[in-house]
């Protein structure tokens, strides 16, 4: 069905945003997903012409409600209004106006009426110890509620680090046996959108993709949307040139920190964390509103085994290449010009090439000796 001008006028009245702003938003989401130029329009048309909003069952486990809070406080524009219009929020333990048995009955009624059609969103980890008794809602454990709701869900989204891989509750000795949704739901795909808090744009983009195409976006091995978690924070970080040039802050408030140098030596986990924080930032206000942007190291909140696990200021496991420790210390370069910094960089490259050549020569020599032994 072709979209008419009146359709968009109706959208403006429902959402309180202009047609231009809405189209611009959809185009931005499509571009961040790496989709073609027509994808943004397709997403807009899917929202405008939708005969029925997909029903959503939203469960809360062990968590701080951070994902819901970040969703409600974001503007992309007026994201909370858009999200509540894009979906039919049937059950949400924080936002429900009602309470008690009536709300629980309504949840089950919606799940029965919308079998195979509703989207299940899980926020928070799921405790497994002692039968899951450490998190109960309406007389039902989170473990039971998750399995019940997942059985007939059309799509399942784990929103936040706790729901994706266990997050804070799973750290340390983990007395409640907290795990993420993928460890409980093993018979169907679970989209994980980790972060503490997660970026609401990553959630909205995933939902828009599902509404538009009727399927989930391409996912990585951990169930994360590739369009949002396909690259290391380190690769897109605007402090990366300082890393490559060997310019590091070594203490909070030192000269390197004041000048915006790389935070690797302060424990930044960007080199081992996959997320799009540098490009999206938070709260749609610009100005570098995300940890590294305000001068604090990334602590790897979206990466299982890194966030809430590794010591905050320990060095990251660099996935690309190690930091250039062959460069002079910061103090000896503070008053040098660009030419001397370049010379130091070239020297570091030369040392690296020499080391690499030596290693390759040793490898070839070992192969030749092994070959000679076999022939002998």
UniProtKB/TrEMBL annotation:
Superkingdom as given in the UniProt entry: Bacteria
InterPro entries the record matches: Cytochrome-c3_hydrogenase_C, NADH_UbQ_OxRdtase-like_20kDa, NiFe-Hase_small_C_sf, NiFe_Hase_small_N_sf, NiFe_hydrogenase_ssu, TAT_signal, TAT_signal_bac_arc
Subcellular location: Cell envelope
Protein EC: 1.12.99.6
GO CC, one annotated term: membrane
GO terms of molecular function: 3 iron, 4 sulfur cluster binding; 4 iron, 4 sulfur cluster binding; electron transfer activity; ferredoxin hydrogenase activity; hydrogenase (acceptor) activity; metal ion binding
Gene3D superfamilies associated with the record: Cytochrome-c3 hydrogenase, C-terminal domain (4.10.480.10), NADH:ubiquinone oxidoreductase-like, 20kDa subunit (3.40.50.700)
Cofactor annotation: [3Fe-4S] cluster; [4Fe-4S] cluster
A Pfam family per the record: Oxidored_q6
NCBIfam families, sorted: hydA, TAT_signal_seq
Protein name in UniProt: hydrogenase (acceptor)
Lineage: Bacteria, Pseudomonadati, Pseudomonadota, Magnetococcia, Magnetococcales
